[in-house]
Amino acid sequence: MAKLVIQTQVYENYGSEFRPHWKAKGGEDYVVPNFTRFNDVQAFVDGIEGARVDNSYYQKYLIDWFVAEDDYLTEFERQQLEFDGKITYPAQELVVVA
């Protein structure tokens, strides 16, 4: 089996709607476990709701995606294992409804 890994970048506006001052504020990792739609991955990713947000004060952009083995851990998950010995905050799983 495989999982789809989706990475996002978040920006926050510290200015106003008319004089924005955007700052990068990290991002989020999402995973789709048991992924099997290999023939239309880009179309699948383009259809994901919630991975993108764009308003006057908060923006979230999809910056990368890739298909990985089921045992793949995100960088944040690997760091948790290394420093804490366990994963307390796993990547958010997206549920696919057929």
Describe this structure in words.
There is one protein chain. The protein has 98 residues and is an alpha+beta fold. The protein has one domain (2-93). It is built from two helices and six strands, in the order βββαββαβ. The chain has helices spanning 41-46, 75-84, and strands spanning 2-13, 22-24, 29-32, 53-54, 58-69, 92-93. Strands 1, 2, 3, 4, 5 and 6 form a six-stranded mixed β-sheet that branches. A hairpin with an 8-residue loop joins strand 1 and strand 2 (22-24).
In short:
The chain is of the alpha+beta class and 98 residues long. It has helices spanning 41-46, 75-84; strands at 2-13, 22-24, 29-32, 53-54, 58-69, 92-93.
The number of distinct structural domains comes to: 1
- How much of the sequence is in beta strands? 35-45%
Structural class category = alpha+beta
Global mean pLDDT: 91
Unreliable segments of 5+ consecutive residues? none
Query: What's the alpha carbon Rg, rounded to whole Å?
Result: 16 Å
Q: What is the H/E string?
A: EEEHEEHE
Percent in helix: 10-25%
The count of DSSP E runs of length 2 or more, i.e. the number of strands, is: 6
Biggest pleated-sheet summary: 6 strands, mixed
Based on the model shown, name its key terms:
16% helix, alpha+beta, 98 residues, flat, 36% strand, 6 strands, six-stranded mixed beta sheet
